[in-house]
Design brief:
233 residues, alpha/beta, Arc Repressor Mutant, subunit A, 2 domains, 4-stranded antiparallel β-sheet, 40% helix
Length: 233
């Protein structure tokens, strides 16, 4: 009997059984994943807390408890905050999708979707969680300090709580301070995506990061039509 650890468990919270079956089949074919499922939001929240999976695939439209509420609760709980969440959304759920990203979800996939695409996104997020490409030494710019050894960010000495994506995004901008980073490059290096997808994902996370940095938010400059840059002074 093979051992099951949180490092390879994917929790699917979805009430459409055909979607669950398709995701389960493709994740098992991809190899290395153990799949757990829940058919409503309340059950999904309970399983997430009990199992602490490596990643959660979360539908927005769920019975008993909406996906947005599940996401919000998980990202405000210290025990589950670190778990990456990929939201499944319908095309008409644009506002909910943006709110989900602002609550701390790592990514979204719009239905109908390619099973291969979602498997690639999951693998990219899992690689990112292992810290590939992350800087090693403490970095300081004005009031902002990023300490990779402690996975810790401060502004004027006060701790700032960031999601995994926000932390990686800030680290990449700090590492390349003064240089413009295109949205496509940030998608590739922060999210791990090789192909072009909706770059609004980047914009939403930058907006949320700025809000958390408070008075230091102006350090992140928008380069219109291209991307972002962390100002050196």
């Amino acid at each position: 009997m093979n051992s099951t650890t949180p490092s390879n468990k994917i929790l699917i919270v979805e009430d459409e059984q055909d979607v669950v079956d398709m995701l389960t089949l493709n994740l098992k074919k991809a190899g290395g994943f153990v799949v757990s499922t829940a058919a409503d939001g309340a059950a999904g929240l309970k399983k997430a807390r009990e199992e602490l999976p490596a990643l959660i695939i979360l539908d927005l439209m769920l019975p008993k408890m909406p996906g947005l509420e599940v996401c919000k609760v998980l990202k405000n709980d210290g025990a589950t905050r670190h778990i990456p969440i990929i939201m499944l959304t319908a095309k008409a759920e644009e506002v909910d999708r943006i709110v989900g990203l602002e609550f701390g979800a790592d990514d979204y996939v719009t239905k109908p979707f390619s099973p291969r695409e979602i498997v690639l996104r999951i693998k990219a997020i899992m690689r990112r969680g292992k810290g590939e490409g992350a800087p090693d030494e403490k970095m300081t710019l004005g009031p902002i300090t990023v300490d990779p050894a402690r996975h810790h960010v401060t502004v004027d000495g006060k701790a700032v709580r960031l999601t995994t994506v926000e932390y990686k995004l800030l680290s990449m901008l700090m590492l390349r301070r003064g240089r413009v980073q295109s949205r496509d490059r940030l998608l590739n290096e922060v999210w791990g995506y090789e192909s072009l997808i909706d770059t609004r994902t980047v914009d939403t996370h930058v907006r949320r990061l700025r809000k958390k940095l408070g008075k230091a938010a102006d350090a992140i400059e928008t380069v219109r039509g291209f991307g972002y840059r962390l100002l050196e002074s």
